[in-house]
Write a structure and sequence with these properties.
mainly alpha; 5 helices
């Protein structure tokens, strides 16, 4: 289980089937089917717990990030933001 949790690809895989498929490649082929299944399930559950703990710390701080300028603030002078106007201005 620790080997799976240490693998960034496993942690980055979507919860559920993607993590299970990823784990199939990481668990040795000669491992008992049920032992591998339990290790995969435990590692996936733990990875989700760790992700939720990180989200709990990050989400309250999202308002601290600078806001993106509006589209109008990023368009060349004389454009109203429509793609064809922007293309014509170059």
């Amino acid at each position: 289980m620790d080997t799976l949790l240490a693998d960034p690809g496993f942690r980055a895989a979507k919860q559920g089937g993607a993590r299970q498929r990823y784990a199939e490649f990481a668990i040795p082929k000669d491992t008992d089917k049920w032992v591998g299944w339990e290790a995969t399930r435990d590692a996936a559950d733990r990875a989700e717990e760790l992700a939720q703990a990180q989200y709990a710390q990050i989400i309250p701080r999202l308002d601290e990030l600078p806001r993106r300028p509006s589209v109008a603030g990023n368009t060349p002078m004389g454009c109203n933001g429509r793609p064809e106007d922007i293309a014509d201005s170059f």
